[in-house]
Amino acid sequence: MQAALVCLPGGNEFRTRVSLDFSHDRVAGTLTDGFGIVWTRNG
Q1: Is the residue at 1 inside a domain?
Q2: What is the signed CA dihedral for 12, 13, 16, 21, rounded to 10 degrees?
Q3: Is residue 33 part of a domain?
């Protein structure tokens, strides 16, 4: 999958390839990235 990475404020697009890895925990409803940061959904 490809996506645009944009820095805010200003909206300058990051023009270099970036590799992001995530692991999904369906039971907890979280994503963990390659750095060990756990992402959760608000709401």
Answers
A1: no
A2: 120
A3: yes
